[in-house]
Amino acid sequence: MYHGRCYYSGSCRFADYFVICGLDTDSGLEPDELSGENFEQSPLRRTFKSKVLAHFPENVEWNPFDQDAVGMLCMPKGLAFRTQVDSREPQFHSFIITREDGSRTYGFALTFFEEVTSKQICSAMQTLYHMHNAEQYDILHTPTSPLGLEEQRHQHQHSQTRPMLHAAPAISRLQRFNSYDISRDTLYVSKCICLITPMAFPQACRKVLQQLHQAVSSPQPPPLPLESYIYNILFEVPMPPSGRSLKFSGVYGPVVCQRPSTSELPLFDFPMGEVFNLLGVENVLQLFTCALLEMQILLYSQHYQRLMTVAESITALMFPFQWQHVYVPILPASLLHFLDAPVPYLMGLHSNGQDDRTKLELPQEANLCFVDIDNHFIELPEELPQFPNKLEFIQEISEVLMSFGVSPEGNIHSSDSQPKYRGFRSVDMVSDKRNGNLASPLNSYLLRENETIARLQALVKRTGVSLEKCDLSMSHLGDRDGRIQCDEEELKMHQLNIQVREVFANRFTQMFADYEVFVIQPSHDKESWFTNRDQMQNFDKASFLSDQPEPYLPFLSRFLETQMFASFIDCKILCHDDEEKEHTLRVFDSRVDKIRMLNVRTPTLRTSMYQKCTNIEEAAIEMRVSKIDHTALHPHLLDMKIGQGRYEQGFFPRLQSDVLSTGPTSNKWTKRSAPAQWRRRDRQKQHAEHLYLDNDQREKYIQEARNLGTTIRQPKLSNLSPSVIAQTNWKFVEGLLKECRNKTKRMLVEKMGREAVELGHGEVSITGVEENTLIASLCDLLERIWSHGLQVKQGKSALWSHLLHYQESKEKKSATPGGLGPPERRKSDGGVSAMAPLKISLIQDMRHIQNISEIKTDVGKARAWVRLSMEKKLLSRHLKQLLSDHELTKKLYKRYAFLRCDDEKEQFLYHLLSFNAVDYFCFTNVFTTIMIPYHVVVVPSKKLGGSMFTANPWVCVSGELAETGVLQVPRNTLEITFECQNLGKLTTVQMGHDNTGLYAKWLVECVMVRNEITGHTYKFPCGRWLGKGVDDGSLERILVGELMTPSTENDERMCRTPPMQQSPGMMRRFVTISPNKLNTGQIQEGVGEAINGIVKHFHKPEKERGSLTLLLCGEYGLVWALEQVFQHGFKSPRLFKNVFIWDFLEKSQVYFESAEQREATPDENWQTRVRHFCRFMRAINNTSRNIGKDGKFQMLVCLGARDHLLHHWIALLADCPITTQMYEETALIKDRSLVNSLIRVLQTLQEFNITLEASLVKGVGI
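== DENN domain containing 5A ==
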């Protein structure tokens, strides 16, 4: 999101404003309450309000001056005071101001100390000390220790208002006793000079400011008045054109800056090596992953410049993507409440160097990446996926770093870990860490106490030459290469930046090399595409992911859901031709084209081969730096009145506004009369390079496109009134609601896939990975909603903490005995509804989660609970119940919180209700190793006396993940509850009995199995006898089940679609029309549909396939269809004797095996087929299982399908003489053409590798 905006009217200047901030002696000392410092601090340590004292020029049209923002960011902690004993080193930092339209402007500030000359201020400070000391004295001399109370009161009062860094312990306060005495001490106060520029050139700006500061602190006055230099930088130094370098003059020496050409990566001038030095490659990569997945990121350091460098580096490395959300690398103290924002953000928080991380109360951490820059430490959100090829990637980055002498682990030991190629070095002295504005860790090489170095250091400060890390030998200082115009160190910094950035960019060009293929171009014109933006899919995610190597999926599936990816693709759709393309997109596309030319391998077959980065173009920079393209005008004397421009050493003068308020009239850079056409092209080029858009219309599109709750890029940096805060929060509430609407819609469209595709929206299917991604992002959204406006933070998950409060209050109420036992179950009354539905209980669902020992954290528990509620279709209902406890909500949330905005809350629950329309298995499929109780009921037929049944029944339940083994079922109740490891979705039940007792015949209607945690109930229809001499003589059967649709007893459910399964198709209709006899056409149709189901099954990605067993043995599956084939025209035998297909097959087997037959047909093929057929028949007949004739037929069909033999066997049987005896003339099996088409249909199964569930082939050793 490198938005520049100044180009609307074309700022061609290097800098827009020069600003001075500091103490306004007229208004005196105003304590800065907003910055949250506390008054027990000694007065020198408190913060006071700083003011913008002057800025030049008054205003530039393309970048209106924002006084509040500049003041806050130049001195984010207000004024700091020092005395002569404290360290007073100047400090440089940069900052960024993001406007409401997302455009940016940069600021570079140098803060230094000046002696306070105003008597009023000094005596005010003295008075504050007298008061402070008196207070301390009282506290110390009271008999009991009310210090505790004082501190508690204090902290209590603050914790209500904002995340608070607590007061320091009492001892250090004592040491501060009497630390300012007006008669003895000199008082100093911080002051800041700052350049506001349209583009970020930190190195150049740093030099300019340091030389200006040096001019006032050195004993000799500078060659020209300061006004001349400031006038020069404001009005006479242009922006370097792209691909060129520019040299201009500071007070003491030349300053060089250069800008990449349009074919290079965009401008980036911060020292990236420093980021790796501070954090180490591993941490940087984790932080980078969090940023790409749009988590909330909080950087923490006592150096403003570090916050800025890390933030800018991470966002620059994202090329070609851009951070789309709140971006505040330096969060002023008065905006701390902004950490409450329920949106993705990247913010930097200044630490005062003495409080540890635990003191920092952050409103929400479920989705937070916390980076403690100074301590080389990073805290990651849970369930962070790995960046693809992470190890090889780390290896490649490390090699680049090591070639520049930067350690890949980072520099843990030095408190000021500056990489050794850093050009500028300020001497950071040790100082009291508790200063207000400036941080100052020890400079690593002063530790050596080497006098030469100290002397050199002093020299450097006088002369303004920049010093490398001092080699004690100093030998390399002599043979400097004269050609290179900027410092070698700076060149090294640029080279390292380029190499590291190229390595990162290369990852994306490799990963998205063929992304264009998957961009869904809108069918209508841009206007209507734009208005329906939210409903449109702009990228074929499912197809793209199905091409990716498995290990990439967890990361990529989440990345494709981000705002930055969506915006990138939107850009692609909006810029068809190269002319229109924005800079970043053009550069990225040209690299992708290169890769595709190099990789002749088919672009669709993605491999996870790691391809290193090969194109690193550093030559361009060296060229630019060694041969300067442009030199700006030199500073010159201005037309000043006599006596103007004088100043005292050590004080930054009050500049003469009359000479600085307007620029030269005839300067070529500011001439407004250039031909408009030329100006426009130039502006567009500049604009496009820095930012992404050319014309206003596209600007409008992209700003609005997909504006999911990203209405706020940066808080309004003004003095915040309650109404401003309320308005901001209101924006958040609206954003959350919109995001919720879009998420639920996206998840439904995905889930209803098949129906949705016919309706013309959505992708064909959703993979397990993608479903997980969507649910994880729903969990994140819920966490953000629950942590918005929280009164007091408890635990890392706001949602779980609210649930625990609810559980506690309910359990107190029902502390009466027997109040909350598990819901009573009704005894089976033997009907099909043998199972009373599980009682709906939010608390019970929480208990299930609490009993899962594998889930250790609060965030994990909250996520598991959401998954379970989704699977039970109770999410909306549970949350409604949770929020119906208004007392509790009031106690936990501030008035402005989302959960206390009634209308929004209602709409939010309504959106969640729509999830009930589809089936999710997001709990069962994720927690695969947990123990789950199952309840089984066998339902015997009411018609025939089940009560006389004497044998002992058993069942064995199988699911997609595991099976139970044989479980005995008590004969009297016919139900059992058992616990075992998660079986996954249930597929089959094998059931049977041991044939004991007088009456061992049993007619079973069905078996019902229920998962007692998720409440999913499966019905396994049977409708057959089990017993010797009855039906087909089977003592056991394999039943195939399907998920029951719960009867909707509560009106809360929305309309449902039936569970995901094959559509009933023609067959169910035929069977209902003519139950006994199907004609040949209908039978062919049946076989076709059964085969079709299996073919479709194999064409789905593996993660989404349903149960193959259902397609083979379930209702209207392959076994049923072939049964119809063999029953058609089967001669019906005499009365009372049932003949089964198996009898016919056994006769055929006998015929084939008879010896004479062997000689009759010498055909080799035929003999192989016969051998196979007989071998399978024998194996099935010899099994120890009592599966009955129909069970055997089912087993034969399954094995034949597995080994691709069915079509051979049909051909064999059609020609077999036994067929002539046992079938009518009209039978299907005797009709040549019908048999041939049947064989052709069965042959389509040959290309699939069919794996049978263990329960289908148990006991057959083939």
